[in-house]
Amino acid sequence: MCLASGAAFGAMAIFGKLAYDEGATVGTLLAVRFGLAALVFWAMVLAGGAAREVRALSRRDLGTALALGACGYALQAGCFFAALTRIDASLLSLVLYTYPAIVAAAAVALGRERIDARRITALALASGGLGLVVAGAGTGALDAVGAGLGLLAACTYTTYILVSEGVAGRVRPTVLSAIVCTGATVSLTAGGALLGELRPGALTAAGWGWLVCLGAVSTVAAISLFFAGLRRVGPTAASILSTVEPVVTVVLAALVFGEVLGPVQLLGGALVIAAVPVLHASRVRLRAPAADAEAERVPA
Question: What angle do CA 16, 276, 261 make, to 5 degrees?
Answer without folding.
Answer: 50
